[in-house]
Amino acid sequence: MNEILTQEKSIYIQIKEMIEDDILRDILLEEERVPSTNELAKLYTINPATAAKGVNLLVDEGILYKKRGIGMFVARGAKRRIMEKRKEHFYDDYVKRLLAEAVSLGITKRELIAMIEASEDGGESHE
User: Fold this and answer.
1) Disulfide-capable partner of 58 in 1, 64, 74, 77 (CB 3.0 to 4.6 Å)?
2) Distance CA 101, CA 50 (A)
3) C-beta of residue 99 within 8 angstroms of C-beta of residue 107
4) pLDDT (tens digit, 0 to 9) for every residue of the chain, 127 residues total?
5) What is the Cα–Cα distance from 63 to 65, expressed in whole angstroms?
6) H-type alpha helices, the chain
7) Which of 31, 1, 20, 16 is nearest to 83 (CA)?
8) What pLDDT does residue 20 have?
9) What is the gyration radius of the CA atoms in the chain, in angstroms?
10) What are the C-alpha distances in Å from 55 to residues 78, 102, 104, 127?
């Protein structure tokens, strides 16, 4: 969790996403304690209430849970839930727009697949 906060979106959303990223990258594992809101506040020089808002969003989503007197922990299945949610957002935010733009440019499904495959190979082939 050493990323830099930006002005692009609310700080509490960035805190939430950084914790999710650490879970996805196996930096934070299931049943492992996450930094407290005070630790997050100190690390990022933010108000503890702002950090708590980001953490509480993850509690609401079942990604984190609280052990009374000990702190917040990563829930079982958290990584899977985050991946499912992000795949859904990826489809809605990127794939749908990509397909709409391809249609407006007259790019066929075959051409689009060729572009994707070429980019995977590091090439520039656009059939």
Assistant:
1) 64
2) 38
3) no
4) 656 676 778 999 999 999 999 999 999 999 999 999 999 999 999 999 999 999 999 999 999 999 999 999 999 999 999 999 999 999 999 999 999 999 999 999 999 999 999 988 765 545 4
5) 7
6) 11-24, 37-44, 48-60, 78-90, 96-105, 109-120
7) 20
8) 97
9) 19
10) 13, 38, 41, 47
Residue 107 CB burial class (10 angstroms; 0-12, 13-18, ≥19): middle
The residues near 102 (Cβ < 8 Å, ≥ 6 apart) are: 111, 112
d(CA 118, CA 115): 5
Supply the DSSP string of 44-78, one letter for each residue.
Answer: HT--HHHHHHHHHHHHHTTSEEEETTTEEEEPTTH
The torsion angles phi and psi of 66, rounded to 5 degrees, stand at -100, 135
| Cβ 111 vs Cβ 101: under 8 Å | no
